[in-house]
Amino acid sequence: MSDLDDRRRVQRAALSIGLYVAVASAIVIAAGAGILLAVILVSRRPESAEHGGGFPHEGSGDDFVIDADKILPWVIVLGLLGVMMLALVAWLAARRSVRPLGDALRLQRNFVADASHELRTPLTTLTSRIQVLQRRHERGEPIEETIVELRRDAGMMTDVLGDLLLAAEGGAVAGDPASVDEAVRTAVESLRPLADEAGVTLAVHVRQSAAVALPTVTLVRLVVALVDNAVQYSPSGAAVTVTTTVEDGVAEIRVADHGSGIHGIAPDAVFERFARSTESGRRRSFGLGLSLVRDVAVRAGGSVAVEGTSSTGTTFLLRLPVAG
């Protein structure tokens, strides 16, 4: 979204607030005038009633007399009510006027939190590879392969950041549909240093592959979030398995771990922002990864759910429509 779009949005909001205040004020004033007129009509009396004896008086007939001492209290009360109603209109208008600002601040906070979370895992992986590179260099071992992996990890961070910026602007990345097989393998390979440090084995089983209508970097982000979550909650010596298949035109990606299961929270609630299980992982969790997976999957016409959880492990199921 450009600065021009922001200005137009502010101008539309200002016009909307102006019309809202004008219409609401007109209604309040018209209501007060109507009530005052009704009081005058009810309290009036013919002018002839002021003259005794029943003698006709000049100007009588359609002339009426209104007692000021009866009307004045109504004028004061209606004036106070009018001020209070206009104050209420101003308060409501102020709330409406700051709502776009509140929405913008919320989106900004969400983007900062999401970007920090999404870059956290690639940055941790990059740090692990640098440590591996340092150890190999000190031992005089070949480091060419590690350098290639470092370049790939740095490129992935750039792609993730670009994908997040496009998502924040409501844009879409044009390109070929993402291969589920390739995306899963890319995600698993990027997380292998973290899994090795945790003593967790990563395995991929491609029973049936397909392409889905998502950018490759976006699909890799989804799988990274699910696999990273599984690694965090798996004990040392356990395995995390990623299985892909296709069922009725829908690509299914299952990520299964052998942790202790989800505790202290309903399984479906783990997809809410900042929701966390009472079971702590190796790294502090902010409850954002699974929420981002759900948001992206739903926008793509798919879903993500906890297929099963128990004391022997948890399985997440990501379902995405196959590209036509």
Mind sketching the topology for me?
Blueprint: H1 3-43, E1 45-46, E2 64-65, H2 68-139, H3 144-168, E3 178-179, H4 180-198, E4 201-206, E5 211-212, H5 216-232, E6 239-247, E7 250-256, H6 289-299, E8 303-310, E9 313-321
Parallel strand pairs: 4-6
Antiparallel strand pairs: 1-2, 3-5, 6-7, 7-9, 8-9
Helix pairs in contact: 1-2, 2-3, 2-4, 4-5, 5-6
3D structure, described in words:
With 324 residues, this protein is α+β, with helices and mostly antiparallel strands. The protein has two domains: 3-108, no CATH class; 175-321, Heat Shock Protein 90. Helices cover 57% and strands 15% of the residues. The protein has helices at 3-43, 68-139, 144-168, 180-198, 216-232, 289-299, and strands spanning 45-46, 64-65, 178-179, 201-206, 211-212, 239-247, 250-256, 303-310, 313-321. The strands form three sheets. The chain has a five-stranded mixed sheet with strand order 4-6-7-9-8, covered by helices on one side. The chain has a two-stranded antiparallel ribbon with strand order 1-2. Strand 8 and strand 9 (313-321) form a beta hairpin. Helix 2 (68-139) runs antiparallel to helix 3 and helix 5 (216-232) packs antiparallel against helix 6. The radius of gyration is 34 Å and the shape is elongated. 24% of the residues are buried. The model has no long low-confidence stretch (mean pLDDT 78).
